[in-house]
Specification:
This protein is α+β, with helices and mostly antiparallel strands. It is built from 22 helices and eight strands. A hairpin with a 5-residue loop joins strand 7 and strand 8. The N and C termini lie far apart (about 80 Å).
Amino acid sequence: MLRQSQQQKLLQKLSPQQIQLMKLLQIPTANLEERIKEELEENPALESGETSPEENSEYDLDAKDENYEDENDDVELTDDTSEKVELDDFLKQEDDGDYGYDSDYYGGDQEQKTTPVRVETNFHDYLLSQLGMLELDAHKQKIAEQIIGSIDDDGYLRREPGAIVDDLAFGQNISTSAEEVNDIIRQIQSQFDPSGVCAWTLQECLLLQLKRITPPTEVLQNAIDIIEKYFNEFTKKHYDKIQRYLNLSDEELKEVIHLIIKLSPKPGAAFMVTNKAESYILPDFFVYNNNGNLELSLNSKNAPELRISQGYREMMQAYDRGDKKNKRQKEAVLFIKQKLDAAKWFIDAIKQRQHTLLQTMQAIIDFQKDFFLTGDDTNLRPMILKDIAAITHLDISTVSRVANSKYVQTEFGTYSLKYFFSEALQTDSGEEVSTREVKTILTEIIGSENKRKPYSDEKLTDMLTEKGYNIARRTVAKYREQLNIPVARLRKEL
């Protein structure tokens, strides 16, 4: 049976300004400048520069205007201004994507800026440039191009010959066979640089590189035998088995392994271009030690100078001073009011972002003061998001957004804010220490071990227990994996 009923509910909804602030909080400094540029391009009422008191002026456009007239009335906004504001013309410029930077409100010619484009030769272009060495006819040239197009950025061929045959048949209407494709693949493998390219597996890649080395030596032949016959034992570092199979001395095995580890597991990696702008870390905060007093400052890129457009304010003032207003002028100024409000909201959000960043970082500094004074990881106290949220009276989600992708520069180096957060671990004496401290000690123990006989996880557990850290073996294994340290067998060296 269907019924109608009325219910009264209390719901909590985020305003657009709150959503905008949350998004700005989680943006790192490196991307904030780009976000501000986007806002400047989208909102002509927002400008870069120092703020002025006038930007706080409010204009009430919702109230009924006594002088409002029909849209057919031809009236001016003001009679006492020497230069009249033509709203319709301005809006036409707005629609055309021109914000009138050359008008009287801005002055001067706008400089035409162009973005330089980086020109570079990628890995596949380099391989295609070598096709001339194969002396192929037009038919085989197309096949070779398809094969090169199937090679990934690491230099490996990721398509089987049968699949390449189908790709050529359906994509380019070229008829070929798996034998013909395999023949061209072998030519690429034996003649193209870098050596090892166009292999299907790591084992084949290493063999291709070894077979291109000259002159042939006994060490080279032993290396080929190991990769060809005992590759599984080599990857698992069962050197004793390899030594027994090939009847090698310790010194001979060491020479062979040294030759193999010099090979490239990813032939195409040398051609990968890293964007330097992406590889640099731009700190959001700076912490200075001034005779034992820790001073915090925010990166200047986090505090841009933004202001409300003077031209837009003058338009609003001209409208307010006018005696008569028609419908079209009313709609135009409503649009201007929306742009002004959006600009003001964005400026307020940037200021709130700065305040929240400083407030949160100051709480982290106070909590981890011993670390910022000494730089010693063992001085890090157990700290979780809830601890900082309690100090700053912010929500845990807000603290999480601040800590995400943010960095602080100290005299001991640059650290991610997440570095300072860790769980607590209780020692035998009942003292709570940071898991970061345990990981640091674990790294030191493994770093000083005999690589011929590396410590097992059980041995590492016993050594940590002797130091007073009550910890289980599976926890040691978890910390070791988090530190990207392999198991004892894979840490073994000759």
